[in-house]
Design goal:
- By secondary structure, the chain is of the alpha/beta class.
- The protein has a single domain (13-332), classed as NADP-dependent oxidoreductase domain (TIM Barrel, Alpha-Beta Barrel), CATH 3.20.20.100.
- The protein is built from eleven helices and ten strands.
- The longest helix has 18 residues, at 249-266.
- The radius of gyration is 20 Å and the shape is globular.
- It starts with a strand and ends in a 10-residue tail after the last helix.
Length: 342
């Protein structure tokens, strides 16, 4: 397994990490569509990841209302020193007015609850799951800095921020000498390249590492979907567990045709090619892969240990290119002074 420094820190993470939103016992209205791994199944998947060197496990308090964290905590019992944990807060965890957001009150309540569910004394990466415009950025960052100083949290990250959300947060942290976000957990794949328009140039400039969520776009790039193939029964998308805007069908199938061709050239699967393409992108530190079972996990782990050629990357770049919106199309007309990340 390859390891990369996360952003401008000295903290190394594996290029593949495991997302535990599928750890769920019960019938959660949303997350059950992603998967239902109990403690025994979760333990097997954790062991497979550790054997492969994928030692970062990503979860969130909101995943099945704490069940994912609880199952992960049980699955890693006796192994805490061998792995890294990333979890998140911000989204609602109750009906009370302070059960949501990035206020000092909610963050402190959330981190203590997560530590208890995970059965650990510290969290390696603590992430604000979304931007809270109702709470002053100063309040959020001062609280996170205090948690780092206390040892409960080692590094902080954000997720799903706009460019100005992240830049304002970094500027405030720098102004007061507080802990900076070293990572941005973001939606990015061959079918969703909007991250490249503004957030990636910002990440290059400010040394913020990218932790990619849904690198296979909820299974769209798993290799199951073809012009001649119906949506697989029981797939995450078929059950309504997908995310992101709709994708033009003909454009998507044309991209799959290119992926099929590159997969044939490399002897790899479509999913492995799609993941490997992401690992060639600027700022990308780790891909958060998910799996309902050991077979899916084994296939995803095969995305490392080899590289696409420059020509193959260029083919996929061209096939996945989408029309940009303003002001990005205007900036791309002046690339001499607004170069794309390389």
């Amino acid at each position: 397994m390859e390891y990369r420094l996360l952003g401008g820190s000295g903290f190394s993470v594996p290029v593949l990490s495991f997302g535990t939103a599928t750890f769920n016992v019960g019938d959660h209205a949303f997350f059950s569509k992603w998967g239902n791994s109990d403690v025994d199944q979760a333990s097997s998947l954790v062991d497979m990841c550790l054997d492969a060197g994928a030692n970062l496990f990503d979860t969130a308090d909101v995943y099945s209302q704490g069940r994912s964290e609880s199952i992960l905590g049980q699955a890693i019992a006796g192994k805490r020193d061998k792995l890294l944990i990333s979890t998140k807060c911000t989204f609602g965890m109750g009906d009370g007015p302070n059960d949501v957001g990035s206020s000092r009150f909610h963050i402190i309540e959330s981190v203590n609850a997560s530590l208890k569910r995970l059965n650990t004394d510290y969290i390696d990466i603590y992430t604000m799951h979304g931007f809270d415009a109702s709470t002053p950025v100063e309040e959020t960052l001062r609280t996170l800095d205090t948690l780092v100083q206390s040892g409960k949290v080692r590094y902080i990250a954000c997720s799903n921020f706009s460019g100005w959300h992240l830049m304002k947060s970094l500027a405030v942290a720098d102004r007061y000498g507080w802990t900076r976000y070293i990572g941005h957990q973001a939606y990015y794949s061959l079918v969703a390249r909007e991250y490249e328009w503004e957030l990636m140039p910002l990440a290059v400039d400010q040394k913020v590492g990218t932790l990619v969520w849904s690198p296979l776009s909820a299974g769209r790039l798993s290799g199951k979907f073809r012009r001649t193939n119906p949506m697989p029964q029981g797939s995450r998308i078929e059950q309504g567990g997908g995310e992101g805007p709709s994708i033009p069908q003909e454009w998507f199938f044309s991209l799959i045709d290119t992926l099929d061709a590159v997969a044939a050239e490399t002897g790899k699967t479509v999913a492995q090619v799609a993941l490997n393409w992401l690992l060639q992108r600027p700022t990308v530190a780790t891909l958060i892969i998910g799996a309902r079972n050991e077979e899916q996990l084994q296939q995803n782990l095969g995305a490392v240990g080899w590289n696409l050629t420059v020509e193959q990357v260029a083919k996929l770049d061209a096939a996945s290119e989408r029309e940009t919106i303003y002001p990005y199309w205007h900036q791309r007309g002046f690339q001499k002074r607004n170069p794309l990340p390389v």
